[in-house]
């Protein structure tokens, strides 16, 4: 078995997350440090120990902080982030408490075209190290009613199925969807799989009468709309 990497133990005691919280309050901690306190311990992988700070940083980098806050599906977190059921439950329970106790009225968001979708997503997924496939679910006035992480990883027909796209639409009574995913390479040009999967989803949308308005691909400081390119 590989040697454990208890990196948090190399940090001076007074600079560890829990001690920083006690001494300076939550405002002095990073998001990763706050999440590390919630998770409490790291995670054994196949041949090494993922330190709790490494684990919390990875979760926020791979999934995105906003997506992690909004995620309520324990099984999805287990699968996408390769974490244990206990860790996934801790994450979901923590953010659900935050929503219930401290949620404030959020500004209403309207997504009317690809530029609106890009402006919404550019700071959320443009710099992620993994591809993340998201769905924006809209009402009849194009108001955003739900933002769903549909899958993590390079889009393939094995990874994405139309039912995973439309299940949240039914759950939240959406009438339209805008799809989006990032290309970590920075180049937003669509792959053959990107186009094929989008066309399959569009065809399925006609059966259940929930319109797919667009699919945008986000690169480094730029994006591409499959609708604008007449690829859907």
Question: Can you describe this structure?
Answer:
There is one protein chain. The protein is α+β, with helices and mostly antiparallel strands and 232 residues long. The protein has 2 domains: 7-102, no CATH class; 114-225, Cytidine Deaminase, domain 2, CATH 3.40.140. The protein contains 9 helices and 7 strands, in the order ααββαααααββαβαββ. It has helices spanning 17-24, 31-39, 52-63, 65-70, 74-81, 85-102, 114-125, 162-171, 192-208; strands spanning 43-44, 49-50, 132-138, 144-152, 176-182, 211-218, 223-225. The protein has a 5-stranded mixed sheet with strand order 4-3-5-6-7, sandwiched between helices. The protein has a two-stranded antiparallel ribbon with strand order 1-2. A hairpin with a 5-residue loop joins strand 3 and strand 4 (144-152). Helix 5 packs across helix 6. The protein starts with 16 loop residues before the first helix and ends in a 7-residue tail after the last strand. 31% of the residues are buried. Residues 1-6 have low confidence and may be disordered.
Beta-strand content: 15-25%
Supply the number of helical segments: 9
CATH fold node name of the largest domain: Cytidine Deaminase, domain 2
Order of helices and strands: HHEEHHHHHEEHEHEE
From the coordinates shown, what is the CATH architecture of the largest domain?
A: 3-Layer(aba) Sandwich
Helix content: 40-55%
Shape: elongated
Q: Give the terminus-to-terminus CA distance.
A: 50 Å
At the fourth level of CATH, the homologous superfamily of the largest domain is: Cytidine Deaminase, domain 2
CATH class of the largest domain: Alpha Beta
Structural class: alpha+beta
Low-confidence stretches: 1-6
Q: Note the main sheet.
A: 5 strands, mixed
Average pLDDT, all residues: 88
